[in-house]
Amino acid sequence: MSPNQFQVKVSFADHQRASEARLSLSTHELTIHTSKGSDINTTTIQVPYSCIYGYEAPADKSTEDNDKNKVVVHYVAFSEPDLRNPSAAKRTTAQFLFERTEDAGRFIQTARDLGAFPKPKRILLLVNPNGGVGKAKRISDSVVKPMLQHSGLTVNEQYTEYGRHAVDIAAKVDLDEVDSLVVVSGDGVLHEVVNGLLSRPDWDRARKTSIGIVPAGSGNAIAASLGIVSQLVATLTVVRGETSKLDIFSLSQLNRPRIYSMLSFSWGMMADADIESDNYRWLGPLRFDVAGFIRMIRLRRYPGKVYVLPPKHQQSHSTAKHQLTPPQSPSHKREPESRFQHLLDSNIKEPPKPWSVIPNMPFYSMLLLLNCPNVGETIFFTNTIRFNDGIMRLWYSAETRFWKILMPFIFDQQNGKMVERDLMKDLECGGILIVPGVEGEPDDPSTHKVTEPDWVTSPAAKAQNIYQKPGLFDVDGELMPTARTLIEVHPSLMNILVPEWLYHKDDDNSTARAHEAAVIQAIKAQQKVRSSFGGILVAATAVAVAAAAIILSADGHSPVEFLRSTLQL
Ligand SMILES: Nc1ncnc2c1ncn2[C@@H]1O[C@H](COP(=O)(O)OP(=O)(O)OP(=O)(O)O)[C@@H](O)[C@H]1O
């Protein structure tokens, strides 16, 4: 028998009777060959190391004789081909009884050397008891903590106690004591962790601390974008500790602290709907569909100008990435470099070349900047973006016909083809300057903030019967002032925990690749398959709510006026 092979008696969590088996440890997986006559259906079980989240081995002399030869391996099994729904991933255990204690020890040592077991790390788990519909605590207790128990990780759990508490925690956490900050919540708390870490005087060190997410919010766009389909897979991801680079956008406004985003920025219909969806939080993920539908049938246009920087100018910038801005005064706060901060000065009416304005677009109905493929757990926008490609993706539209906007949201919400419809224009860029307002004139010169609640008076708008609003600025689901805003990309600024099989290192083992490819394919399929029927059902529910909204005429328009403007009569 080769040094990486072992003879054992094996029993599985769901099969009580032990049977003879041969174990082999390769570079990437543990294979269990059970002997004929066992009560286990399959005779060969492959457990990729990427699916092992812990083990138990006899630790002390007082252990019973029999237990000294025992090793228990905890792993996640995917029940192919049913990987399409999150319940396809299942926790399980295999218990091995070796003939001799030395064999058990040799097995553990060999498995460790080959990277089969998770490496020890210190995790700070931030649980938002209010995340989603208040399910985060239950998820932490029933899924996350039981899985972490045998992982070898040192875990500290902390509940967030108020809005933006995670910013304060991340801003103060002792980086010598923590390797990863993991949130059990939605995108909002992860956004706060990013901002807390990057607001620190030692941000250049803090940015290297890996961040992770166990989806327990209502949107969960980041987790879905990473291919994390369940809390179980998310916890496995945390335990295995594989990371990928993560691009970050910075959003600068005059005389305000800078905000950082890992997911999205939006303005217009989608932003209004996202922020307004907070009123329907009790609906869980459905809140976005209902708020979106209501906003769609009361479509507005949002006046302003948007300037873009071509991506190659950002690319050359990326070679000098993460440089510190030289301190100008003792009070000057060091932060990731901004090359275009001067464009926030209102004396600069038009940014110079290579910046250019988006032509013929004084009015928008929606504008979306994305760093990830998903804008929500159930909204798979496009597969043309990666969160580590160093480029910003901008979509915008001036469309205000209700049905034109509704169609992609019903039929293409989960198939990644939303952007292929003739609704939105698509741009790659390295930076964006947004100047909201009819003529770019801010209401408040010191902040450039647009404050008019109902901005409907421009002659051009009146002539076209356009119903306008300054609109809301939404960054990662959080509100920010509607004001002149500079958005820049900081390529690969942070590290995020990702499922190992999606980003495995280059190896030449075809079995590992085949297994991993199957998992990837299944996860992608899972993102696409949720039927459009769900969308139609949601739309039907939303129609009822929306009809009430029209009758109540929240924005002061009568239903007749509304129909006329919607149908462009
Ligand atoms: N103890 C708390 N009490 C009240 N609010 C809290 C508390 N802890 C965190 N929050 C706030 O809850 C908000 C929502 O959190 P989070 O984004 O994680 O959940 P979600 O909105 O349901 O999910 P998603 O952002 O994915 O839609 C955050 O803005 C955060 O500041």
TrEMBL record:
The chain crosses the membrane at residues 533-554. Residues 314-339 are annotated as: Disordered. One of its GO terms (biological process) is sphingosine biosynthetic process. GO terms for cellular component: cytoplasm; membrane. Residues 316-326 have a biased composition (Polar residues). Keywords: Kinase, Membrane, Transferase, Transmembrane, Transmembrane helix. One of its GO terms (molecular function) is phosphotransferase activity, alcohol group as acceptor. It comes from the Eukaryota. Residues 118-255 form the DAGKc domain. This is Sphingosine kinase 1. It comes from Mortierella hygrophila.
